[in-house]
Amino acid sequence: MERIKNWFKKPWVGYACAGCIVVLLYELLEHISAVKAGIDAVWTFLSPIVIGVVVAYLFDPVSEFFKRKVLHKVKKESARHIWGVILTILCIVLILALLLVALIPSIAKSISKLIANWDSYAAKLSEILNWADDFAKKHNINVDLSNVHNLLDNAFDKLFAVVKNNLKNILGTLGSIGSGVSNFAIGIVFGFCFLAAKKTLLNILVQVRGALFKKERLEKHNQLLERCHRVFIRYVGCTLLDALIVGMATLVFTLAAQMPYAPLIAVVVALTNIIPTFGPMIGAGIGIFFLILESPVKALIFFIFICVLQSIDGMFIKTKLFSGSLGIPGVWTMMLIILGGKVAGMWGILLAIPAAAIFSIIYKETIEPRLDKREEKINNKSTENAALPMPEKKEI
């Protein structure tokens, strides 16, 4: 090992490595399309396994809850673990079945009603646009609404024409969606298999890590991983619970106010509330769009309600759930969400904040101490050099 370290200290080794990295980077950029196709192919193959690992990781706390609280009288550890996994699967299936029975018929009815009344909605929108056009002309405001009028005229005929002309692309997209759904389903099966084999997999991981790291370093890594795990699980659990609270509150209010599309709006608001910062605004906009077609007054009432609800959610519910913050300054939140969306799409938006919180922990506990040690080492060398006597100048 010492021989390899000495070998890497030679100057030409560093230059050779830098040259190889430059050539490799150039080749990757030159053949970026082939690289992307290769990455997509590898991801298609590995995605069920990755999804399975994520599913096992997310549902492991549920399994542990059943083992600790429900199955604590079962003496055999292996039996307690298997029954915990079985109860977790049954719980998830039961929740999904209840959601399907309670929401799917109402959502389907709302969507069919929306489609059936589209002509009347288009007529109302045309009236609103005509009023806006007259108002703009009356006050000398230069606004061109002709494209919107053309879009509303015979909207369904145009939609069918677009579908007919792009049938091949649509079928390809549907095939990709079907492939993604099948990979997700296989990933869920893998996830529960990984969850059942948790002890064996963890033993293998512990042996590999024990062979790679020394005992002290391994203990520090375990503490760091435990803290990152708590941050991520806390964020995911609190986010889902907050979305459920907001969705249920929206459902109760819309049903009590006898608003149309109540289940559909509640589901949309709950799902978009998972997206940080921008999600509540998106959900509110979609709900207002559905309601304004039916009744502008109810749309205004819903707008006031959603503003009050999101204010309560932001000031009290989220504060209580997250206990303040995850250690990320509020100024950085929006920037992180935008960068996450640019890099990884929807997943980047959802995971930007917990990833930044975990990076903050890693920086404070791993990188910052190394930087402090390096700074201290440099300062000590400077002090030693300053303490050395200056060489005497020889007279010529």
Descriptive account of the structure:
This protein is mostly helical. It has a domain at 214-371. Helices cover 87% and strands 0% of the residues. It has helices at residues 2-8, 11-30, 32-70, 77-116, 118-138, 146-152, 155-165, 167-196, 198-212, 215-256, 262-272, 279-294, 296-322, 330-387. α10 runs antiparallel to α13. The longest helix has 58 residues, at 330-387. The mean pLDDT is 76.
Give the tags:
396 residues; mainly alpha; 0% strand
**How much strand content do the residues show?**
under 5%
The helix count comes to 14
Helix coverage percent: over 70%
* Overall strand count: 0
Low confidence ranges: none
Mean pLDDT across all amino acids: 76
Q: Give me the secondary-structure category.
A: mainly alpha
Gross morphology is: globular
Order of helices and strands: HHHHHHHHHHHHHH
Q: What is the CA–CA distance across the termini?
A: 51 Å
Q: Largest sheet, described in full? A: none
Q: What Rg, in angstroms, do the CA atoms define?
A: 30 Å
